[in-house]
Amino acid sequence: MPEYWDICDENGIPTGRIHQKGTPMNPGEYHMAVTVWILNRKGEFLLSRRVPTARHNAGFWEPTCGSALAGEDSLAAACREVREELGLTLDPSAGTMFDRYNWPHLNGSGMVHFCVWVFRGEFPLDEVILQPAETCDARWADEDTIRSLIREGVFVPYSYLDKLFAFCRNLPGGLPD
Questions:
Q1: How large is the angle between the packed helices 161-169 and 143-151, nearest 10 degrees?
Q2: 74 closest CA partner among 105, 115, 37, 112
């Protein structure tokens, strides 16, 4: 069954039009996607590893990411993506919108309006249920480990990481100094 996205403006506001995933978008069109960082009490983030056959970021470690479906807001999309990719249920009240930014779509048509979320959560790794077509491993990693993974070339080097780590340090019980 085809997947449909809302066409949004550059601020992530739906225009009332929808788009079928996999077909080219028009110039100036956006669709919404989410990146979800889950932070535990130890100051670690839950990461998953993309399968080697993934269309993008194959074999890389990253937070959960995915597109919002037509009719979803970014919070609903964040919770659904984590449930689909990791088999975990997030508490929506434990999430905070950290950032928004626009990025060119992978297929070269249109743009993506990313909403970046930070959720507090405690999940044992043995509760993670990986989605075989998307994820092949999961781990908790602190800031130093994430920076090491970037140096090794196996983590998506998000441009906002310094800002994210600073933001998380200021959360109650956030990252250690």
A1: 170
A2: 115
* Pairing label, strands 111-120, 30-39: parallel
The DSSP H or E segment spanning 59 is: none
Determine how β-strand 111-120 pairs with β-strand 45-50. unpaired
Evaluate if residue 177 carries a pLDDT over 70. Answer: no
Structure tokens given for 76: 């609903």
Choose among 101, 93, 91: nearest CA to 65: 101
pLDDT in tens, 1-11: 889 999 998 88
Interior/surface letters 151-176, b for 16+ CB within 10 angstroms, e for the rest: eeeebbebeebeebbebbeeeeebbe
Rounded to 5 degrees, what are φ and ψ at 145? -65, -40
Helices vs strands, H then E, count in the chain:
3, 9
Find where tokens 């990481």 sit.
Answer: 161
Q: Rounded to whole angstroms, how far apart are CA atoms 25 and 20?
A: 9
**Per DSSP, what are the bridge partners of residue 10?**
none
